Amino acid sequence: MIATPYLIFLGDAKDALAAKTGQGIVDWRPDWALGQLRFPECRADLGIADMNIAEAVAAGAKTLVIGTVSPGGVLPESWSELICEAMSAGLDIASGLHTPLASIASIRATSTRLDRKLFDVRLPQQSFTVGSGERRTGKRLLTVGTDCSVGKKYTALALEKAMLEHGMNADFRATGQTGILIAGGGIAIDAVVADFISGAAEWLTPAAADDHWDVVEGQGSLFHPSFAGVTLGLLHGAAPDAFVVCHEPTRTSMRNVDTALPTISQVIEMTCALGALVNPDIRCVGVAINTQQLSEDRALTLLAETAADLYLPVTDPVRFGVDNIVSELLQF
Amino acid sequence: MIATPYLIFLGDAKDALAAKTGQGIVDWRPDWALGQLRFPECRADLGIADMNIAEAVAAGAKTLVIGTVSPGGVLPESWSELICEAMSAGLDIASGLHTPLASIASIRATSTRLDRKLFDVRLPQQSFTVGSGERRTGKRLLTVGTDCSVGKKYTALALEKAMLEHGMNADFRATGQTGILIAGGGIAIDAVVADFISGAAEWLTPAAADDHWDVVEGQGSLFHPSFAGVTLGLLHGAAPDAFVVCHEPTRTSMRNVDTALPTISQVIEMTCALGALVNPDIRCVGVAINTQQLSEDRALTLLAETAADLYLPVTDPVRFGVDNIVSELLQF
Fold it and tell me: Chain A: which residues have CB within 8 Å of chain B?
């Protein structure tokens, strides 16, 4: 686990979108977002206190988190000095970039000399065993998608938040780099060696108290030809009791490929068919539709039509929250 | 590609089973199996000429292949000297053991100094891109299984052999370490990073002449909770036109787990349902049943019953060959 709270480093982020990792931490873990550190040319602003390294350490920061994406995921040379300064001041470092922190000689040397931890959240931090398929105590919910990038992480985080507000016992389980920085831990499941996908997902969602829910961030789609293997390994490892289908209604084909989009019903049927192998009780408990591209009227109509069609709670988590899905979960 | 022909090194193999990789090469690629090199205490015999390194090099050998399994897949220290000698005499080295050849200092140094190739066939030799899901010219057949270790490699090799005998244009495509040593190339698909499973399988089965068949070695099972992600990624990457279901009729549960076995029909249905995403023409062309545990009478009855039930060619490739399945393929 990454030590909290964080000082969020934004470097010279060009715009708010470049700082979306940092924004995710502020949105979902505000207590951990102690301050932001920005270069003068930075054009993003997370709306939290600006701090230098000394101020952040004095305020209790434990880790410098790189909260911005750089072109190609490369760690700019110009950041190394600041990262080494942060370690000298006592901070660990966490990064979701492609460049491993330890591949930069000065960063590696400083971390070894001072015994600071480097978290490259794209890289698995441990080895796994193959999945066992065994039932475990506790309950699990997985977000699945008609496609990639349809709001699976957002929906899982929104569900965790609403479940906690309803007094439920729930933990978000991150499976991608942004999710890991938000959660302070997790596994970038698509970076695991193929043999261990379901084993890694079992490790991420261990046996727990009967009333406990793991709310697992889904990846890819069973209907995406690039990533369906990852999606299925995650489904078998998480062995969910409940799943929520996430959907973006304006897509015309699967992201980055020519494959046709599945319907929400097809995703529900296939997820049940394949998930039943490890959990015969699996069922769909709701649908999350990203209606950002639609007017509010059109969005409400689409949600109502989909709900009538599927006999399930349907919502846009960003616009209308997820209380209707949580009501379904409270009946488990 | 691993240079052929091979000198097959058996070390001190305890019995014939320990030498099954070497036996596979002799069975399926007899022209490449130039000779065997055995320590005095070796109790396996591939039935080919015994040769020392100098004799093998004089006879034209290009690669020393480790044709035996050691306990835990560890490379015994006592083999390093012989491996280095082989490189000094001009041979490359290929191994399917867990210990990477280059992790032994003397082997690494000798290979660098003499520019000899080291093939650790469990480790991917190159990086891949994510799968595209695009149709390619040429035809593809994939062996799939009701479970792991039910004869998918054997069936694919038997099909390739029979297809070539029938004048068809076919290539076996290896996806596991033994298959790679038999084929002289391929990808250990379960060792690829999860994100690239289907991309690696696409790389293994590139666009080809319209009459060409890739005969792809399957892995795992869509119904095995440890490995189904690998199986699905391979299915999507290989995008088969045809598949053969392999089955072992005496199993009582899936290998190494408590999961119930699927029926052959369930495997056919699920493979079609998932494979249609990338190839709507996918269909089952036969069933291969491993009847080793059954009397010949019982075996023949089971094959006939299964064929009547499924309206498909059914055989035991070891006992009765695969001509009935090849007849089906000739009609494509």
Answer: 130-134, 189-195, 197-199, 222-223, 225-234, 236, 254, 257-259, 270, 273-274, 277-278
What would the pLDDT profile of B87-111 be if each residue is shown by its tens digit?
999 999 999 998 999 999 999 999 9
Amino acid making up residue B142: L
3-state secondary structure at position B136: coil
Asked if pLDDT for residue B317 goes beyond 80, the answer is yes
Q: From CA A197, how far away is CA A209, in angstroms rounded? A: 24
Amino acid letter at B94?
A
* Spatial separation of the C-alpha atoms in residues A198 and A204, rounded to whole Å: 10
Q: Which helix (H) or strand (E) holds B215?
A: strand B212-216
Distances (CA, A) of B64 to A69, B38, B175, B186, B202: 47, 12, 21, 18, 29
**Number of A:B CB contacts under 8 A?**
125
Q: How far is CA B87 from CA A32, A49, A132, A183, B74, in A?
A: 57, 63, 41, 51, 20
DSSP label at A311? T
All residues of chain A having their beta carbon less than 8 Å from the beta carbon of residue B277 are 223, 225, 228, 259
Tokens for A168, please give them. 């439920």
Do the beta carbons of residue A132 and residue B257 sit within 8 Å? yes
Half-sphere exposure of B224 (CA within 13 A, CB side): 26
Token pair for A196 = 């261990």
In chain A, the percentage of residues whose pLDDT exceeds 70 is 100
ipTM topping 0.95: no
Distance, CA of A278 to CA of A291 (rounded, Å): 33
| CA dihedral sign, ordered B203, B204, B209, B213 | negative
Q: Angle at Cα B146 formed by Cα B144 and Cα B152, nearest 5°?
A: 40
Does pLDDT of A112 surpass 90?
Answer: yes
**Cβ(B25)–Cβ(B181) below 8 Å:** yes
Nearest CA in chain B to A199: B226
| CA distances from residue A73 to A30, A99, A100, A204, B211 in whole angstroms, order as listed | 25, 7, 10, 25, 43
Cis peptide before B280 (omega within 30 of 0): no
What is the Cα–Cα distance from B233 to B205, expressed in whole angstroms? 13
Distance CA B275, CA B277 (A): 5
Show Cβ contacts of residue B271 under 8 Å, excluding neighbours closer than 6 positions.
B144, B222, B235, B243, B245, B282, B284
Tokens of A30: 């505000």
Type of residue found at B84: C
CA distance B262 to chain A (A): 10
What does the pLDDT average to over A198-204? 97
Pair of tokens at residue B246 = 């392999």
Model pTM above 0.90: yes
* B196/A125 Cα distance (integer angstroms): 19
pLDDT in tens, B102-140: 999 999 999 999 999 999 998 887 889 999 999 999 999
Domains of chain B are 6-120 (3.40.50.720), 139-330 (3.40.50.300)
B177, containing H or E segment:
helix B177-183
What is d(CA A17, CA B144) in angstroms, rounded to the nearest whole number?
Answer: 44
3-state secondary structure of B121: coil
pLDDT tens digits along B47-71: 999 999 999 999 999 999 999 988 7
Residue B312: phi and psi, rounded to 5, are: -140, 155
Strand partners, B36: B8, B50
Could A233 and B229 be called an inter-chain contact, meaning their C-beta atoms sit closer than 8 Å?
yes
Give B117 to chain A, closest Cα distance, Å.
Answer: 24
